Amino acid sequence: MLLVKRIAFYITGKCIKLAVLLIAVSILSFILVSHSPIDPVQSYIGADITRVSPEQRDNIAEYWGLNEPPIQQFLNWGKHLLQGDMGTSLIYRSPVAEVIAERFLASLALMSVAWVLSGLFGYVLGMTAGMKEGTWVDKLIKGYCFTLASTPAFWLGLLLLMLFSVWLGWLPIGLGSPAGILEEDVTFMERLRHLILPAVTLSIVGVANIALHTRQKLVDVMNSDYVRFAKAKGEHGLKLLWRHGLRNISLPAISVHFASFGELFGGAVLAEQVFSYPGLGQAVVEAGLGGDVPLLLGIVLCSTVFVFIGNLAADILYKVVDPRIRRGEI
Amino acid sequence: MALTEVDKGIPLLKVEDFALSFRMYKKRLREQRMQVIRKLNMTIHEGEIVAVIGASGSGKSLLADAILGILPDNAVCEGTLFYKGDVLTGDRQERLRGKAISLIPQSVSALNPLMKIGKQVQTAVQNGNSKIRQRSIFQKIRLPEGTDNYYPYELSGGMARRVLTATAIIGNPDLIIADEPTPGLDPQSLQEVTGYLKNLADSGKGVMFITHDIDTALKAADKVVIMNEGKTIETAVAEDFTGKGEGLRESYTKTLWNALPQNEFIPISESHFKNEIEDDRKLKVNGLAYRYSNAPYLFKDLSLSVNPGEVVGLFGYSGAGKTTLAQIIAGYLKPDNGTIEIDGRTVSRSGAHPVQLIWQHPEKTVNPRWRMRQTLFEDGSLDRELLNDLGIKNEWLDRYPSELSGGELQRFCLARALGSNTKYLIADEMTTMLDAITQAQIWHAVLQLVKQRHIGILAISHDQHLLWRVSDRIINFDELVKS
Amino acid sequence: MMRHQMLKVSLRQRTLAAITISVLLLLGMVLSGLWIGDEKLGINPAEMNEGPSLNHLFGTDWLGRDMLARTFKGLTLSLGVGILAAFSSTMIALVLSLFASWSEAIDRIVTWLIDLFLSVPHIVLLLLISFAMGGGFKGVVIGLALTHWPSLTRVLRAEMLQVKTAEYVGVSKKLGKSRLWIARNHILPHLMPQLLIGFILLFPHAILHEASITFLGFGLPSEQPAIGIILSESMRYLSTGMWWLAVFPGLSLLLMVALFDILGQSLRKWIDPFHGQKGV
């Protein structure tokens, strides 16, 4: 009973936090956008005056509250947002919510594959390095991770593109699906083929963080008092590692990996740009370059929620690890 | 070694000319070789408790690691260890540890925080049904049923000690190494621990009892190995530690023995303080109450007073809340209720506090980036005479804290605290971390200074003998809290 | 045995060597970048699309420009942007963490600000700020400066809290020292090394992010030979097999970032050998 109450309390708290965060982020980004030399409304209408019908123009004016002070404009926008109306995208000529939903799905496929892959490899590499601390294996893995951390993600993408698509011709050069084929006719395998390179790029970059973290944690655990005592008890080798290492490291490692959603999204933006992968990252770049304010703001909010979910998962996992929480004593 | 080793047969453990050093990196990555143990010799026979005594931080725990073969990679060992007459090689250590040789560690941090107690004890069982073994040993050692389902954080201090002991003896070892198993315990718990160790020895096992406290060691040990500066100074039988130590051969051991508060220490002066001052000129604590956020009150309505020039001893065991009280009186913490008055007035928040606190761990109370001269200047100017009285040597002034010993640092802390504004000192376990000789020297200096300067002292300790020696009157913390 | 000891270089020597070498290499990069004049960057129709050779170590592009010169110029540019951004970010971090030490309320505000800035993906935030500033040099520098302080502030704040609750600071207070005195004599000296290391370790991030958003088209204007520009231009020529357009500039960027990283890590080890007991 107490546990249920605590969970309810926790959920309410997190919801309030998310609401405050979203309000703050929308205020912040609205201020930024309205200070930009590109006026949201003018650019919308002025970009291609011939394609905007008077009716559309009225719609837009109504949406933003043309000629009203910025605060009023913000409130207008906020009111529409709360009603689920994120405005209309200039570039894509369709509701922002729809664009985001479609693009996000594509990005999600890319990011989840990359996330799982980098998590697995990073974890295994980190464990190996931590186990062999100080040996050449450790140094090799550490060096590899530090090099990766200094590698521009988009450059890595370019290299892979050159190697596998241009020279070897194994994989397609870009786009989420082959050109000239209707959306419905694209096979799963085709989609997969287009996913491989961006996902590989993204996962290679993501390995460094999780590997270094896992390694450090394992080293710390191996130097702890309880591993000293475990050794004194006669435990050794893989059994010791399994009982005390994996147990105490695994969930925190996954937790850290969840907390890296922000970097994952950033990496996806770059990878999608290099491989012309039609995801949310590519859309945000186009929105920024094309002055598509509603889409830009929409994606900012969407990515904030995405990062928040990652952090939330991390937080919950941390709590699950703690036996005191599990026993319901805190 | 004129001891009767010959007729006892082959010793269980023999340590011969053992030395241990570490490769370390200091500031600016200068590599240093830190010699922890220089030359250690000792033997343990079956059925015998041998205490190894050295000051805190003298590397005694590392001796345990060395015997078990679980030293960190950067340790360098010399000398030879023999177990039952044969050289103890790395291979053998790996085979023996947890079976023939086991460890009782100091604190609950030796238990994996995320694993249930029962499981952890079972992992120490090498063969047979581990669950049954664990159950029976828990019964034998009087751990309540269901303890095996606990996580380490759910154990009380006493239970944790029993669990650690259970883990160590479940494999039926011949040699048990107890690494400081009695840190600041109350007499009852102390009795319990020493009782266990004696039982083990009576059943034919060898016990190595590592501690910094001679007094505790003598409660259990048959033989005592005295270490100083990493060397075995003397191995004596427990019975030699009587009287003025006439049975002891080495002068260091004699000095150490006599420096104990219960022995010579400092000649007790007649209580020089006559309780005649009835006016306001005193440190007066009235009706103090304090608790940490949601915990129960440590104390409610606590009152005491210290007169100028008087030494008041405050006695209590670890974990009772003495340190919190000390911090409140010295102005570090704000009480939930109650007043602290000095000469009839409450202390203003700004400016130097007339009550200065001397902490237990001097190395934490000096800025590690400063030379000692700068630390002293924090209090104003250098008082040469004061430094002299406290036995601070001139060349120490240009050293960094990491280059001085705990005793030397504590002298600096005293010098810093004895500024012109200071009217009272609170000495919170001031010499607990130090060896008996240094303890005696420091108290000697402090008591003289206090008399000269007419400063009142509240001496807080768990060491009754010490308080008897230094105090004009003694207050029992438990009674203080209850009343 | 003797030989072994002679061959063994101590950690101190290795660290000092790493610091010296990385500083020298970075200096070399910058100086050569500054020394390269505009004539080297000029168009040369006679030497178009040439692969790497002794004359042009990094090859030439479709306008016959020497890629080595462009790369070094680009690195110098990146470094300039990096210095401006890292310095401003460090200052923001220092001021915020000093504020945070003042009272619990301010500390909570600072923590909330950190969380707020970390709650939007870094690249998206950069993009937004750059968009707001109308792109260009100003947009990049302001964007980088405004988004790199949170992690350093977090580190500095933690250090600050640690010193603030240290026993020796408590003693100092009770000896009658004012908050300002304690801040100047205890806290600031403790923070300075962290600040220096934090500053240097911000460089790699700032430089990589600058290259990234320039690559995306939000950063430095396309007439500048920034690495991001060079790489994004190279994409158009990838299918023609001109691999050198992408490989060498990217590799040089990696090298520069790695050098800053090594410099920062080595300095940290040297100033503050954290787990110094390990004799690795």
Automatic annotation (TrEMBL), chain B:
Pfam families: ABC_tran
Domain named ABC transporter: residues: 13-254, 283-483
UniProt keyword Transport, yes or no: yes
A single MF term (Gene Ontology): ATP hydrolysis activity
GO BP, one annotated term: transmembrane transport
InterPro entries registered for this protein in UniProt: AAA+_ATPase, ABC_transp_ATP-bind, ABC_transporter-like_ATP-bd, ABC_transporter-like_CS, P-loop_NTPase
Entry keywords, A to Z: ATP-binding, Nucleotide-binding, Transport
Sequence similarity: Belongs to the ABC transporter superfamily.
Protein name: ABC transporter domain-containing protein
Automatic annotation (TrEMBL), chain C:
Source taxon at top rank: Bacteria
Magnesium keyword on record: no
PROSITE patterns: ABC_TM1 (PS50928)
Coiled coil: none
Membrane topology of this protein: Multi-pass membrane protein
InterPro entries: BP-dependent_transpt_permease, MetI-like, MetI-like_sf
Keywords for this protein: Cell membrane, Membrane, Transmembrane, Transmembrane helix, Transport
Cellular compartments annotated: Cell membrane
Domain ABC transmembrane type-1: 75-264
Biological process terms in GO annotation: transmembrane transport
Residue ranges crossing the lipid bilayer per the database entry: 77-100, 112-133, 187-208, 242-263
Single GO cellular component term: plasma membrane
Family from the record: Belongs to the binding-protein-dependent transport system permease family.
Protein name stated in the entry: ABC transporter permease
Native species: Lentibacillus kapialis
